[in-house]
Amino acid sequence: MAENAYIKLVPSSAKQTITVDEVKELFYYYKDITGKTGNQVDWQYGENAFPYDVKEKNEGKEKWFYLSSSHERYYAILIGVDQEKIRDEDGNERIQTYIQVTLPEQSTFGDKGKANEFCKFLAKKLQGELHLFNDRIMYYYPRK
Questions:
Q1: 3-class SS at 59?
Q2: CA-to-CA distance for 8 and 126, rounded, in angstroms?
Q3: Is 134 helix (H, G, I), strand (E, B) or coil?
Q4: What is the pTM for the complete model shown?
Protein backbone atom coordinates (compact mmCIF):
# COMPACT_ATOMS: atom_id res chain seq x y z
CA MET A 1 0.00 0.00 0.00
CA ALA A 2 1.24 3.49 -0.85
CA GLU A 3 2.45 5.74 1.97
CA ASN A 4 2.02 9.52 2.14
CA ALA A 5 3.71 12.44 3.87
CA TYR A 6 2.55 16.05 3.72
CA ILE A 7 4.19 19.44 3.98
CA LYS A 8 1.43 21.90 4.87
CA LEU A 9 1.87 25.63 4.33
CA VAL A 10 0.37 27.18 7.45
CA PRO A 11 -0.29 30.93 8.03
CA SER A 12 3.18 31.48 9.54
CA SER A 13 5.01 29.65 6.73
CA ALA A 14 7.40 31.48 4.42
CA LYS A 15 4.86 31.09 1.56
CA GLN A 16 1.12 30.50 1.53
CA THR A 17 0.95 28.89 -1.90
CA ILE A 18 3.39 27.00 -4.10
CA THR A 19 3.31 25.60 -7.61
CA VAL A 20 4.65 22.33 -8.97
CA ASP A 21 7.35 24.25 -10.86
CA GLU A 22 8.50 25.94 -7.65
CA VAL A 23 8.76 22.56 -5.92
CA LYS A 24 10.79 21.26 -8.88
CA GLU A 25 13.10 24.26 -8.54
CA LEU A 26 13.66 23.36 -4.87
CA PHE A 27 14.69 19.84 -5.94
CA TYR A 28 17.08 21.26 -8.54
CA TYR A 29 18.50 23.53 -5.84
CA TYR A 30 18.93 20.50 -3.54
CA LYS A 31 20.72 18.61 -6.33
CA ASP A 32 22.98 21.62 -6.95
CA ILE A 33 24.00 22.14 -3.32
CA THR A 34 24.69 18.44 -2.74
CA GLY A 35 26.81 18.41 -5.91
CA LYS A 36 28.83 21.36 -4.59
CA THR A 37 29.36 19.51 -1.30
CA GLY A 38 30.71 16.58 -3.32
CA ASN A 39 33.13 18.86 -5.15
CA GLN A 40 34.43 20.25 -1.87
CA VAL A 41 35.15 16.81 -0.43
CA ASP A 42 36.31 15.39 -3.80
CA TRP A 43 33.69 12.65 -3.85
CA GLN A 44 30.64 12.00 -6.03
CA TYR A 45 28.28 12.91 -3.21
CA GLY A 46 25.74 14.62 -5.49
CA GLU A 47 24.95 11.40 -7.35
CA ASN A 48 24.38 9.54 -4.08
CA ALA A 49 22.47 12.35 -2.36
CA PHE A 50 20.02 12.72 -5.26
CA PRO A 51 19.90 9.46 -7.27
CA TYR A 52 16.74 10.51 -9.16
CA ASP A 53 15.65 12.13 -12.40
CA VAL A 54 12.75 14.60 -12.26
CA LYS A 55 10.02 13.45 -14.67
CA GLU A 56 6.52 14.65 -15.49
CA LYS A 57 3.66 13.07 -17.42
CA ASN A 58 1.15 15.05 -19.47
CA GLU A 59 -1.81 14.03 -17.28
CA GLY A 60 0.00 15.33 -14.19
CA LYS A 61 0.97 18.70 -15.65
CA GLU A 62 0.79 21.45 -13.00
CA LYS A 63 -0.47 18.94 -10.37
CA TRP A 64 2.26 16.34 -9.78
CA PHE A 65 5.59 14.94 -10.97
CA TYR A 66 7.79 12.06 -9.93
CA LEU A 67 11.38 11.26 -9.15
CA SER A 68 12.54 8.13 -10.95
CA SER A 69 15.78 6.27 -10.32
CA SER A 70 17.77 3.73 -12.32
CA HIS A 71 19.88 2.95 -9.24
CA GLU A 72 19.31 -0.53 -7.79
CA ARG A 73 18.48 0.75 -4.28
CA TYR A 74 15.81 3.22 -5.42
CA TYR A 75 12.63 3.15 -7.49
CA ALA A 76 10.41 6.25 -7.43
CA ILE A 77 8.83 9.01 -5.33
CA LEU A 78 5.72 10.96 -6.40
CA ILE A 79 5.28 14.62 -5.46
CA GLY A 80 2.08 16.60 -5.87
CA VAL A 81 0.71 20.00 -4.89
CA ASP A 82 -2.91 20.55 -3.89
CA GLN A 83 -5.14 22.62 -1.64
CA GLU A 84 -7.58 21.74 1.11
CA LYS A 85 -10.23 23.66 3.02
CA ILE A 86 -9.57 23.67 6.76
CA ARG A 87 -11.17 25.24 9.80
CA ASP A 88 -8.83 27.02 12.23
CA GLU A 89 -9.20 27.37 16.02
CA ASP A 90 -11.42 30.44 15.63
CA GLY A 91 -13.85 28.51 13.42
CA ASN A 92 -12.85 30.37 10.25
CA GLU A 93 -12.48 28.40 7.04
CA ARG A 94 -9.46 28.96 4.84
CA ILE A 95 -7.70 27.31 1.91
CA GLN A 96 -4.38 25.67 2.79
CA THR A 97 -1.82 24.52 0.22
CA TYR A 98 0.13 21.32 0.83
CA ILE A 99 2.77 19.21 -0.87
CA GLN A 100 2.07 15.49 -0.89
CA VAL A 101 4.98 13.04 -1.09
CA THR A 102 3.88 9.51 -2.01
CA LEU A 103 5.82 6.27 -1.97
CA PRO A 104 4.24 3.75 -4.37
CA GLU A 105 4.02 0.07 -3.39
CA GLN A 106 7.19 -0.75 -5.35
CA SER A 107 9.25 1.79 -3.41
CA THR A 108 12.29 0.59 -1.49
CA PHE A 109 13.61 1.40 1.97
CA GLY A 110 16.09 3.67 0.19
CA ASP A 111 13.19 5.62 -1.32
CA LYS A 112 11.60 6.03 2.10
CA GLY A 113 14.86 7.34 3.57
CA LYS A 114 15.33 9.81 0.72
CA ALA A 115 11.67 10.86 0.88
CA ASN A 116 12.04 11.64 4.60
CA GLU A 117 15.20 13.63 3.83
CA PHE A 118 13.49 15.56 1.01
CA CYS A 119 10.40 16.23 3.16
CA LYS A 120 12.53 17.70 5.93
CA PHE A 121 14.44 19.81 3.39
CA LEU A 122 11.22 21.16 1.82
CA ALA A 123 9.55 21.80 5.18
CA LYS A 124 12.60 23.67 6.45
CA LYS A 125 12.90 25.80 3.29
CA LEU A 126 9.18 26.66 3.27
CA GLN A 127 8.81 26.83 7.08
CA GLY A 128 5.93 24.38 6.89
CA GLU A 129 4.30 21.74 9.02
CA LEU A 130 5.59 18.27 8.14
CA HIS A 131 3.32 15.25 8.59
CA LEU A 132 5.68 12.28 8.26
CA PHE A 133 4.94 8.79 6.95
CA ASN A 134 4.64 7.51 10.54
CA ASP A 135 1.96 10.16 11.35
CA ARG A 136 4.30 12.23 13.48
CA ILE A 137 4.34 15.99 12.99
CA MET A 138 7.42 18.23 12.81
CA TYR A 139 7.01 22.00 13.00
CA TYR A 140 9.43 24.09 10.94
CA TYR A 141 7.57 27.37 11.24
CA PRO A 142 7.87 30.02 13.97
CA ARG A 143 5.39 29.08 16.69
CA LYS A 144 3.77 31.48 19.10
A1: helix
A2: 9
A3: coil
A4: 0.89
Give the pLDDT mean for 58-86: 91
Signed CA dihedral, 10, 32, 133, 68: sign only = positive
Maximum pairwise Cα distance, the chain: 55
CA separation, residue 57 to residues 7, 30, 64 (Å): 22, 22, 8
* pLDDT value, residue 46: 63
pLDDT tens digits, one per residue of 12-62: 999 999 999 999 999 999 988 888 877 777 777 667 778 899 999 888 788
Q: Residue 93: CB partners within 8 Å, gap ≥ 6?
A: 85, 86, 87
- Which domains are delineated in the chain? 3-139 (3.30.310.120)
DSSP E strands in 1-144: the ranges are 3-8, 53-55, 64-68, 76-87, 93-103, 129-131, 137-139
Q: Which helix (H) or strand (E) holds 29?
A: helix 20-41
The better pLDDT of the pair 128, 90 is held by 128
At position 134, the amino acid (one-letter code) is: N
Contact 100, 79 (CB under 8 A): yes
Answer for the pair 98, 68: CB distance below 8 angstroms, yes or no: no
